[in-house]
Write a structure and sequence with these properties.
Largest sheet: 13 strands, parallel
Radius of gyration: 25 Å
Number of domains: 3
Number of strands: 46
Helix content: under 10%
Shape: globular
Structural class: mainly beta
Distance between the termini: 64 Å
Strand content: 25-35%
Number of helices: 4
C-alpha cells in the first residue's frame, strides 16, 4: 500500500483524532471510527467530489455512539424524595408559545430510563425532573439514591454537523442530545451527501436529525424515541429510502391544555420547502401524536411511494400548503383517533395531489380527508418573496393556485385506484366549501366496511355519495364479502386478497411511475373501466 493510500485511510479512536483526520481529509479519504462512546461534537467541513466522496464510517465489530449527555454525580437530598444539583444548560432554546418546558434543551436518564419533564418544582412525581434557575431537580421512587445510580444529563445540542459536500456518513449512533425544538442531534447542511445505517434517538426536546442538504440520500436509518420528532427536512432532489421512524414525540407536544389542537411540533417527521424528493420503502410506526409524515409549506413535486404506516396519530401522511405531490403504493394501517382529522391521508390547503394505488386499512377517522380552513399566504425564509423569483425557482407563480386575496385553496386533487377498508368516519371526506374546493376528483376506488353498509363520509351509501358529490362514478363498494377481515397481515411486500373475494388477485403494485391503473391502462383511457374490471 502506498503512502497516499495510507493517508487517505485512517482509523481514529477519540474525538480529537477524529477532528484531526477531518481537518486533513481530501477527496477519496476514508475515516473509520473505532467502537466507543464519543461525547465531544464533530464538525465536518471538508468536501469530497462526485467521483471521490469523503467517507466517515463506524468500524466493524462494535458500536460507535455520539452521546450528547454527560454523567452527573453531585446530588444533594432536599426533601420528599427530591434531589438537586447545579447544572448549566449551554444549548440554546427555541421558544414555542405554550410549550416552554417541553422545548427545554435538557433531559435526564437514570440508566436506560428516560425521566419525564415537568415545568414546576411542585409538579415533581416519581421518575420526573424539572429545571429552574440553574437548578436541576429529580425525584426517584422511594428508597432510590441517585448517587448509587448511573445518571446522565443531556448537554450538547448537536453531535455531528456536516457542512461539506459529497460526504458519506455511515453506521453511527447519535443519541441523548440537548436538542430543542427543530434542532437535531445531526445537522446536515452540505449537498450531495449520504447518511446511511445510522440511528438517531433520545433527542431531549428536539429531533433526531435535521436534514437541510440538497441532493442527499438518507438510507437505512432509524429515527426513534426523540422528544419532538424523528427528523426534519428542508431540501431538494433528495432520496429518503428504507428508513424506520417510530415512537417519537416523547415530550408530548400536543398536550398543551391551552390549545389541544396545536400539534405542529410533534410527529414522525416534518418536511418543508422540499422539491423533487422521493420518500420510498420507509416504515412509520407508533408515532402516536402528530402526523407520521408531514409536508408543511411549499413542498412541490415530491413523491411518497411504497411506504408502510401503522399505529400513527393525527394522520399518517399530511400535505399542507403544497402542490403537485404524488402519494402512491402506500399501505396505511390503524391511524389512531386524535383531534380534528385522524385520517390516513390529510390534504390541507394543497392542490394537485395525486393519491393513487394506496391501501387504507382500519382508520379511526377518514381514509382521505380534503380539508380547507382560512389561511392566507405566508412568506418564509426559504421562499422567494418576489413573484418572478418564485416562478424561476418553482416553475409556476403563486397566483396560479391561490385566490386573489392570497387564500390557499384545497383544489384539483385526484383520488384514484385506492382500496379503503374499515375507515370508521368514512372512506373519503371533502369539506363542503365550494369556493376553495374546486376541481377535486375521486374515482375507480374500492370501498369495504365490515361495520356498516355506509362507507362514505356522513354515513352515506356509495350511491348517495355519488349523487351528492359527483365523485366515484366508477368506484365499487362491497359489504360482507366474507366473514372476518377482508385482509390480514399487510406488509411492505405487497397486499393480496382472498381469491374468493370481489377482486381476484388484486394487489397494491410496485410501479416506477404512476401513469397507469392496476390493469395497465393509462389514466387518460380510464373512461369506462376501473381497477376492478377483468
Amino acid at each position: 500500500m502506498d503512502t497516499d493510500t495510507l493517508i487517505k485511510q485512517q482509523s481514529v479512536d477519540s474525538s480529537t483524532a477524529c477532528a484531526a483526520a477531518l481537518e486533513n481529509a481530501s477527496p477519496g479519504s476514508l475515516i473509520r471510527i473505532a467502537p466507543g462512546i464519543y461525547r465531544e461534537p464533530i464538525e465536518i467541513n471538508c468536501s469530497g467530489t462526485a467521483e471521490q466522496p469523503i467517507r466517515i464510517e463506524a468500524e466493524e465489530g462494535g458500536t460507535v455512539v455520539f452521546n450528547g449527555a454527560v454523567p452527573v454525580e453531585d446530588w444533594v437530598f432536599e426533601s420528599d424524595g427530591i434531589w438537586v444539583t447545579d447544572f448549566v444548560v449551554t444549548a440554546e432554546q427555541n421558544w414555542v408559545e405554550g410549550y416552554k418546558h417541553l422545548g427545554l434543551p435538557i433531559q435526564v436518564w437514570v440508566g436506560e430510563a428516560r425521566l419525564e419533564i415537568v415545568e414546576l418544582f411542585d409538579e415533581l412525581v416519581a421518575n420526573s425532573f424539572c429545571y429552574q434557575d440553574g437548578k436541576l431537580r429529580i425525584k426517584l421512587p422511594a428508597g432510590r439514591d441517585p448517587r448509587e445510580e448511573v445518571i446522565e444529563v443531556a448537554r450538547e445540542a448537536t453531535m455531528v454537523t456536516i457542512n461539506g459536500s459529497h460526504i458519506e456518513f455511515s453506521g453511527c449512533y447519535i443519541t441523548r442530545c440537548a436538542a430543542t425544538v427543530q434542532v437535531g442531534g445531526l445537522c446536515l447542511n452540505g449537498a450531495h451527501c449520504v447518511i446511511e445505517d445510522c440511528e438517531f434517538s433520545e433527542a431531549a426536546g428536539g429531533i433526531g436529525a435535521h436534514l437541510d442538504g440538497n441532493d442527499a440520500t438518507i438510507r437505512g436509518n432509524r429515527f426513534h424515541h426523540n422528544g419532538q420528532m424523528g427528523f426534519g427536512m428542508v431540501a431538494a432532489n433528495c432520496l429518503f429510502e428504507g428508513n424506520q421512524i417510530d415512537h417519537n414525540d416523547l415530550r408530548n407536544f400536543c398536550s398543551n391544555p391551552k390549545n389541544d389542537m396545536h400539534v405542529w411540533e410533534c410527529g414522525g417527521g416534518k418536511v418543508a420547502y422540499a422539491r423533487n424528493c422521493v420518500f420510498r420503502n420507509n416504515r412509520f410506526t407508533d408515532n402516536l401524536r402528530g402526523p407520521a409524515l408531514w409536508f408543511d409549506i411549499d413542498n412541490y413535486r415530491n413523491r411518497i411511494d411504497g411506504n408502510y404506516f401503522s399505529n400513527n396519530g393525527h394522520s399518517s401522511i399530511m400535505i399542507e400548503i403544497s402542490r403537485d405531490n404524488v402519494i402512491c403504493n402506500n399501505i396505511i394501517c390503524d391511524t389512531l383517533e386524535s383531534n380534528y382529522s385522524s385520517s390516513g391521508i390529510l390534504i390541507q390547503l394543497s392542490c394537485k395531489t395525486r393519491i393513487y394505488h394506496n391501501l387504507f386499512l382500519r382508520s379511526e377517522g377518514y381514509g382521505v380527508h380534503l380539508r380547507w380552513h382560512h389561511r392566507t399566504r405566508d412568506i418564509h425564509p426559504y421562499e422567494p418573496e418576489d413573484p418572478d423569483a418564485f416562478e424561476k425557482t418553482h416553475g409556476f407563480r403563486q397566483e396560479d393556485w391561490m385566490a386573489p386575496d392570497g387564500q390557499y385553496p384545497t383544489s384539483d386533487n385526484d383520488i384514484r385506484n385506492n382500496i379503503f377498508i374499515d375507515c370508521r368516519r368514512g372512506a373519503i371526506r371533502v369539506d363542503p366549501v365550494s369556493e376553495f374546493m374546486e376541481g377535486n376528483q375521486s374515482d375507480y376506488n374500492f370501498f369495504w366496511n365490515q361495520h356498516n353498509l355506509h362507507p362514505m363520509d356522513g354515513g352515506h351509501q356509495l350511491g348517495e355519495w355519488q349523487a351528492m358529490t359527483g365523485l366515484d362514478a366508477n368506484s365499487y363498494c362491497e359489504k360482507m364479502v366474507h366473514f372476518g377481515p377482508l385482509l390480514e397481515n399487510a406488509t411492505m411486500e405487497g397486499v393480496r386478497y382472498d381469491p374468493e373475494g370481489p377482486i381476484p388477485c388484486y394487489k397494491v403494485p410496485r410501479i416506477e411511475e404512476v401513469c397507469v391503473d392496476i390493469n395497465g391502462k393509462a389514466f387518460s383511457e380510464m373512461t369506462q373501466t376501473g381497477p376492478f374490471s377483468d
